[in-house]
Q: What sequence folds into this?
C-alpha cells in the first residue's frame, strides 16, 4: 500500500483532513516531518554524482535509471514509517511537500496526493496570526504553494485529488465520500466525527467553529491590505473560484 500525501499552503486545512483520515481503521498518521526535503536534495545530488563519469560509474554501467534510483531511495523511508504505523497505510501531512510532487511520485510508486485549497484571504490571515510573518510573506507563501499544487493537479498523472477547505466544512459527507473513493477505502463514521474537532487553531481563533472560519467579515483588514491582496493574489483567487 503506497502512502497518501496531503499538502497545500500552510493553514489550508491539511492537518484537519489528515487527523480525520487517521481515525480510519486502515490508515495511520503522525506529525509533520519536513526531513524529506533534505532527503530529496541528497538523492538528487547522489544521482548527479553517480552519473558524472558515464560507464565508469556503477549506476550507468548497471543501467539504473532515475525512476528506479528514487524508488529505492524511498524504500527505506517507507519501511521506517511502516515500523511505526503497525503496517497500516501511512499518511503524510507536511504542507510544503507540494514542492516535491515529482520526486515523491518516483520515491513512492503508486502514492496518492490530496491537494487542499483554501480561500487565500483566510489562509493569509491565519498564517499571519500563527507565525507572526509579514503580510507580504504570507501572501507570497500562499501563492507559491497553491500554484505548485495546481501544477501537480494538472500534470495529467491522475494521482492528485484537489479539494476546497470550504467543502470539507460545508459538505463534509459528500467531500469525504470523494476522498474515500479516490484512496479506495470504505468511509468510516469516525473520520467524519473528527472533522468537527478544531485542529491547530491559529492564535485568537481558538473558539471559532468551522463555519465561523468561513465568514469574510471576521477579517480585520484595512484598505492597504485588501488592495495589496487583490493586486497580488486576485487573479489566482478568481482561478480557484473565489470572489
A:
Amino acid at each position: 500500500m503506497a502512502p497518501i500525501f496531503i499538502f497545500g499552503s500552510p493553514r489550508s486545512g491539511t492537518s484537519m483532513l489528515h487527523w480525520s483520515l487517521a481515525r480510519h481503521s486502515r490508515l495511520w498518521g503522525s506529525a509533520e516531518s519536513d526531513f524529506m526535503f533534505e532527503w530529496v536534495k541528497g538523492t538528487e545530488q547522489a544521482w548527479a554524482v553517480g552519473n558524472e563519469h558515464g560507464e565508469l560509474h556503477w549506476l550507468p554501467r548497471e543501467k539504473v535509471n532515475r525512476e528506479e534510483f528514487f524508488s529505492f531511495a524511498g524504500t527505506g523511508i517507507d519501511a521506517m514509517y511502516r515500523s511505526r504505523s503497525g503496517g497500516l497505510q501511512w499518511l503524510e501531512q507536511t504542507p510544503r511537500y507540494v514542492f516535491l510532487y515529482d520526486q515523491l511520485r518516483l520515491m513512492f510508486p503508486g502514492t496518492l496526493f490530496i491537494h487542499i485549497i483554501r480561500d487565500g484571504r483566510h489562509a493569509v490571515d491565519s498564517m499571519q496570526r500563527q507565525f507572526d510573518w509579514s503580510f507580504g510573506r504570507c501572501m507570497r507563501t500562499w501563492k507559491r504553494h497553491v500554484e505548485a499544487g495546481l501544477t501537480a493537479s494538472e500534470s495529467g498523472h491522475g494521482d492528485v485529488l484537489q479539494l476546497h477547505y470550504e467543502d470539507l466544512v460545508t459538505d463534509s459527507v459528500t467531500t469525504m465520500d470523494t476522498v474515500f473513493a479516490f484512496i479506495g477505502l470504505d468511509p468510516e463514521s469516525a473520520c467524519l466525527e473528527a472533522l468537527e474537532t478544531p485542529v491547530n487553531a491559529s492564535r485568537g481563533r481558538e473558539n471559532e467553529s468551522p463555519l465561523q472560519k468561513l465568514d469574510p467579515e471576521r477579517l480585520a483588514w484595512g484598505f492597504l491590505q485588501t488592495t495589496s491582496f487583490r493586486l497580488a493574489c486576485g487573479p489566482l483567487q478568481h482561478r480557484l473560484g473565489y470572489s
